[in-house]
Amino acid sequence: MSTVIAAPFGATLLGDFGAEVIKIELPGKGDPLRGLGPFSDSEPLRWPGLSRNKKSLTLDLRKEEGKEIFKKLVSKSDVVIENFRTGTLEKWGIGYEEIKKWDPDIILTRVTGYGQTGPYADKAGFGTPATAFSGFTYLHGYPDRPPISPSFSLTDYITGIYVAFSTMVALYHRDTTEEGSGQYIDVSLYESVFRMLEFLIADYDQNDIVKERTPGLSGHSAPAGTFKTKDDNWIVLVTSSDRTFERLAQAMNREDLLTDERYSTNVERLSRFEETNKIIADWIQMFNRDDLQSLLDEYGVPVSPIFSIKDIFEDEQYKQRENIIEVNHPRLGKLKMPGIVPKFSDTPGSIKNVGPDLGEHNEGILESLLSYNREDIRRLKKNGII
After folding, report:
1. Whose CA is closest to 30, among 332, 351, 356, 381?
2. Residue 236: beta bridge partners?
3. How far, rounded to the nearest angstrom, does the alpha carbon of residue 343 sit from its chain's CA centroid?
4. Which residue ranges make up each domain of the chain?
5. CA gap 377, 74 in Å, rounded
6. Cα–Cα distance list, 16 to 54, 155, 206, 217 (Å)
7. CA distance from start to end of the chain
8. Is 311 annotated in the active site?
9. CATH classification of 6-196+320-382, choosing from 3.20.20.80, 3.40.50.10540, 3.40.50.170, 3.40.1280.10?
10. For a FRET experiment, which of 101, 267, 323, 344 has its CA 20 to 30 Å from that of 12?
11. Which of 60, 103, 156, 175 is an active site residue?
12. Cis ω on the peptide bond leading into residue 38 (within 30° of 0)?
């Protein structure tokens, strides 16, 4: 019972690998994600992929009979995933302390902007503000321009991975240890990104350095960054170790850089970051993109063209890895969406259905799973419960 991206994406990842996922949505309204672009005419294009492998049940959790249906669902479930404002479930009388009475083994995964505790626990939580709060946004952009937020909902998707990961850890603990039982998981948007910034923490703690924003990679290794080729294509190149730089110098036929004390170690190259990058940039300007790629691949130097989505659609690596798959959509016909990752040797995932229509599975869930009859279902619909 969650909306938009972070928590729903975590549930989708679980669904990709076989979890039976029932998505609870408010009758007549549904998940706001259904109204987010892009669109084809009036058909939302994000919904089918982000909500695939789910069943849609409309249910008003604010009403007593809706809570009763929810109680029956919990008693037959392993996991509940929610992302309401802190305290909302408790206000409705269906918080963790209540639902564990119905099923002591239930896992409740809770997603908020700032966590269930702390002075910011009650703040509205959305991905872009949480990204700024995490310290991530401060690092990105040009020094003489405003900081830049990611151009898509990066933090929400990262948090979704934490949702799936932490849920599986809780299930594993419950099902494989003698003392295992249900528990709740407190996932926050900002912490999901902050956890990835250990270099930032260590540098400030030990060196009192506040890393300022830069337009590319800096502060870790040199050379590194974005470079333009002779045929006006952009590529990214990094040398994250001295051994990698050694291979680059060999590819450039500039082995003198390996004996020059100014460039022979990463510490020295970092102290001359702009100077080192310029040497590489001038050399890269001598090559067309494909020729450069072939040469650096031969020497084992990490480099990649900066792909547009058009480039991705045409690339053989994406095709052979089935990173883009085609599915059937009831109104759009054939529709492409991301494939399933990661790849499992024995238990690969599958796409059973695209994002469902609102309430598409009401009758099936209520009849087969919860033993309601047709008359019950008609009454529930008439009373706005479903």
Report:
1. 356
2. 226, 304
3. 17
4. 6-196+320-382, 224-305
5. 19
6. 9, 20, 43, 33
7. 14
8. no
9. 3.40.50.10540
10. 101
11. 156
12. yes
Fold of 224-305: formyl-coa transferase, domain 3 (3.30.1540)
Which two three-digit tokens encode residue 145?
A: 């321009």
pLDDT above 70: percentage of residues in the chain = 99
List pLDDT tens digits, range 93-137.
Answer: 999 999 999 999 999 999 999 999 999 999 999 999 999 999 999
pLDDT > 90? residue 361: yes
Q: What is the CA radius of gyration of the chain?
A: 25
What residue type is assigned to position 101 of the chain? K
**Which residues on neighbouring strands pair with residue 324, listed in sequence order?**
338
Chain segment 215-271, per-residue pLDDT in tens = 776 668 899 999 999 999 999 999 989 999 999 999 999 999 999 999 999 999 999
Q: What is the pLDDT of residue 218?
A: 66
Percent helix, strand and coil across the chain, each to the nearest 5: 40, 15, 45
Amino acid (one-letter) located at 88:
T
Distance between CA atoms of residues 82 and 263, nearest Å: 52
Q: Judge contact between 222 and 241, C-beta under 8 A.
A: no
Global pTM value: 0.93
Return the SS3 of 328: strand
Residue 51: phi and psi, rounded to 5, are -115, 20
Q: Which two tokens stand for residue 150?
A: 């990611």
Q: Which amino acid is at 224?
A: A
Distance in angstroms (rounded) separating the CA atoms of residues 202 and 103: 43
HSE at residue 255, side-chain half, CA atoms within 13 A, is 2
Query: What are the backbone angles phi and psi of residue 6, rounded to the nearest 5°?
Result: -55, -65
